[in-house]
Specification:
Order of helices and strands: HHHH
Structural class: mainly alpha
Largest sheet: none
Shape: elongated
Number of helices: 4
Radius of gyration: 28 Å
Length: 143
């Protein structure tokens, strides 16, 4: 319920006041912090699912292209007029498969860039945390 109320634009204090049980703003803050961490975990899991589905889709397209070219080659070797029509009907199919492969391959760059952006953000956050710890250690040793 905290997440739903936050999605409606309510402040932490307003959320605390609307919950059926009595909680303070700090409890709401802790709950929202948990949701932020959970969101990152869920996004990471979805990216893994997307990457796997991407590989499945690419595999399917490669199999379809192979099958289409096998039919084209079989029609090519027979040479009667009917087989020429089969070949002609396969041109747009092969073209469509190739376009879908190219579109999917270009999408992988976007997926990879998202993952890189996520990793870079995490790296920056870790680096800031390490800098903060180093600063605290230096401050303690200075005293």
């Amino acid at each position: 319920m905290v997440l739903e109320l936050r999605a409606r634009g309510l402040s932490q204090t307003e959320i605390a006041g609307r919950l059926p049980t009595v909680v303070d703003q700090k409890t709401v803050s802790n709950d929202l912090a948990w949701w932020r961490k959970e969101s990152i975990t869920r996004i990471h899991q979805r990216r893994e699912e997307i990457a796997f589905e991407y590989e499945l889709a690419l595999s399917n397209l490669y199999q379809l292209r192979k099958k289409a070219w096998a039919q084209f080659t079989r029609a090519e070797s027979n040479k009667p007029r009917m087989d020429e029509e089969i070949q002609l009907s396969l041109y747009p199919i092969i073209e469509s498969i190739n376009a879908n492969i190219m579109a999917l391959l270009s999408t992988s760059d976007i997926i990879e860039q998202d993952v890189l952006d996520f990793i870079n953000k995490q790296t920056d956050e870790i680096e800031l945390g390490l800098d903060h710890i180093a600063y605290e250690q230096d401050s303690r040793h200075s005293n």
